[in-house]
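Protocol step 4 of 5: obtain the predicted structure for the target chain.
Materials: sequence only (see below). No template structures provided, no constraints applied. The aim of this step is simply to have a reference model before the mutagenesis design in step 5. Sequence pasted as it appears in the construct record:
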Amino acid sequence: MNKRSSWALPYFIFMVLFVVLPLLMVVIYSFQDSAGNFSMANFSKFITDKDSLSTFALSIEVAIENTLLCVIIGYPVAYILADKKLNKSAVTVVLFILPMWVNALMRTLATAELFNMAGITLGKGTLLFGMCYDYLPFMIYPIYNVLNKMDKSYAEAAEDLGAKPKEVFMKITLPLSMPGVLSGVMMVFMPTVSTFAISEFLTNNKIKLFGTIIQENINNSMWNYGAALSLLMLAIIAITTFLQGKSSEDTVDGGAI
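Step 4 output (structure tokens):
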């Protein structure tokens, strides 16, 4: 116990019990039928089930739309927060953190109630509004951190060489901030695909996303099919993470144009 590495033992045990073991169980259940025999029926069921495929396609569509909204809204906000000339108070940054102190479920319920009070029909529009409201901070802060830590000498050198503000932004600031944008996209896109509570409350369950199907199968004790769907989601997350990592490396290697 005197060795420094021994202090990592509790974290190793925690990771095995609450990360590795659950993931292993998901994989095992995915390749089993209700009788416990090895089977690929769960995956073939997903491929042949039109409802599951349409829900999956809708989830991807909603996730893309929500991610684009968060980028369009979040990047200017992050740029303003990181610019010392435009934002001279650290309190402004705290104001964007405050909503995250409230439970996401409570924020969603409050948003749904506001729509009901205003007489707004719940549907895809209210769903996108609620998702953008919930996930926008996860887009702002990765971009803000990159912009805030960015070496300002690059922009100053470009200005000294006669570059206009638009050219400085497009050729210096934007390329160097792409790792933050990619991190924000990752943090917004994947939770949007797998969420179910937001779609239930903000559409009165009219719109089902992929996370809703997983939840319904688990609640109905269809563990094997629910695990297979979860494994597909994990595969998508892994692929997206890999591509995001490669894109970040290319951005860093390429530098500013």
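Step 4 remarks: The mean pLDDT is 87. The first helix runs from residue 9 to 30.
Proceed to step 5.
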